[in-house]
Give the backbone structure.
Amino acid sequence: MKNTDQKDRRRRSPVRGFLICLLAGGIVMALVARGRFLSSAYPGESGRLAACLSDGAFVAGVFMTGIGLLLWISTTGFFDIMRYGIHGLWNHLLPMLRQEKRESYYEFRQSRSKERAVIPCPLLFCGVLFLLTSAVFYGLCQPV
């Protein structure tokens, strides 16, 4: 029983999720920066690397922040009406999947709120961190 508790604690660790998000964002940043560095034709060499790193951090930051915001919004029940509507459409189009009594939207939302867990969003925080990093690199590549 101790082993399962330790595994659950490790699996739910926000630090681990934060590190995984940083690693994934760093890989995306490096790939975009490398592609941008190989294809860019900046007139001056001094700001070329900083500009490429700024672009890479911006791409990683926008993707991570966008996905993090969607995950955070989904924990509030904002998308429940779409899921309820799609579920009703499938029941209408495929009669073999139809339930005898369809629950009301209120009952559906109550059952979803019991299943919904409050999850930490390290993806959102990492995305904002990459956007700030992009701003720093952008400031470094601008001539003074």
Summary: The mean pLDDT is 79. The longest helix spans residues 48-74. Helices lie at 2-11, 14-39, 48-74, 80-93, 105-115, 122-141. Residues 108 and 114 are 10 Å apart (CA to CA).
